[in-house]
Amino acid sequence: MALVTGANRGLGRAVAGELLSRGLRVVVTARDAGAAAATARELGPGAEGRVLDVTSPESIARARDAVGPVDVLVGNAGVLLEDGAGDPLSVPVEVVERTLEVNLLGSWRVAQAFVPAMVERGWGRVVFVSSGTGSFSNGLFTGSPGYAVSKAGLNGLTQMLAAATRGTGVLVNAVNPGPTRTRMMPGGRRTAEEAAVDVADAALLPDGGPSGTFRRGEQVLGW
Questions:
Q1: Buried-exposed string 118-149: b where 16+ CB fall within 10 A, e elsewhere
Q2: 31 has catalytic annotation
Q3: Which of 30, 81, 173, 183 lies 20 to 30 Å from 105, alpha-carbon distance?
């Protein structure tokens, strides 16, 4: 079974649909119960909706207790609160704090809730949806500094969790889907369905596959 955060629309919804098409049962999570349930109904048999707010430890715990152990965890929930024309010297720190709360700390909380059970069972796949804006090899994007730093932090979390779970049967990787056409990025070149294939591929890597990588499809990218 797979659980996808932020799955009621955009890339998260497309990932849930792609995993469902590959034979997995999928838990569609969102902050709003109605949105999660509606998306699950639209996706069809094998999908269920659950409330999960990545900024709330209580919400995460309730979702974990209701769902139980999962085999695949996709951390997709994220926000972009800057307009792309910002500056690290002028961006309101409150905006950075809200961005980190969702994009980095939210993913961290969800991982702490679900990954230990994967380790106990000896199998699991964790995929974080990251971004090239947070890649040091590209150069962090200063136009959306809070977002870029949050994704750089998410990449660091990916590497740490991969190291912590090495040899347990759990693989942890980050995916850079590239500019994807969603509400967050209406002008993106890729459709959500195209980007979802890369996320699903990382979520279903074979035993002994790579862990601690930043990837798109089979291509491993520089951190």
A1: beeeeebbbbbbbbbbbbeeeebbebbbbbbb
A2: no
A3: 183
